[in-house]
Design a protein that fits this description.
The protein is built from one helix and eight strands. The chain is mainly beta. The protein has one domain. The strands form three sheets. A three-stranded antiparallel sheet has the order 4-1-5, with helices on one face. Strands 6-7-8 form a three-stranded antiparallel sheet, with no helix packed on it. The chain has a two-stranded antiparallel sheet with strand order 2-3. A hairpin with a 7-residue loop joins strand 2 and strand 3. It starts with a strand and ends in a 5-residue tail after the last strand.
C-alpha cells in the first residue's frame, strides 16, 4: 500500500528488520504496517493513479468498534478533443 509519511517513525515491514520511515517521503509498505501508520496518524494514503482514472480512498474510523472502513471511487478522465 502506498502511503505518505507525516511523521518520521521506525517500523518493521517484515517483523525482523527495523527501518526508519521519514516524514514527507512516500513508501510502498505491507498493508498491516501501513494500516498502523495511518491509524496512529503518522501517515496518509497516497492517491493511486490507474489507466482509466484516479482512485480516491477515504479512511473512516468508527470509534466504538475501532474498525477502519475504506471507500473507493473511480473518477473517469474526460476524453480529449
Amino acid at each position: 500500500m502506498k502511503i505518505k509519511m507525516l511523521k518520521t517513525v521506525k517500523g518493521s515491514p517484515n517483523g525482523i528488520d527495523i527501518l526508519e520511515y521519514e516524514s514527507g517521503e512516500i513508501y510502498n509498505l505491507p498493508k498491516e504496517l501501513a494500516d498502523i501508520f495511518i491509524h496512529e496518524g503518522w501517515a496518509k494514503i497516497e492517491e493511486k493513479i490507474i489507466e482509466e482514472g484516479v482512485i480516491e480512498e477515504k479512511v473512516v474510523e468508527i470509534p466504538e468498534t475501532q474498525v477502519i472502513k475504506r471507500e473507493k471511487k473511480v473518477i473517469k478522465h474526460k476524453e480529449k478533443k
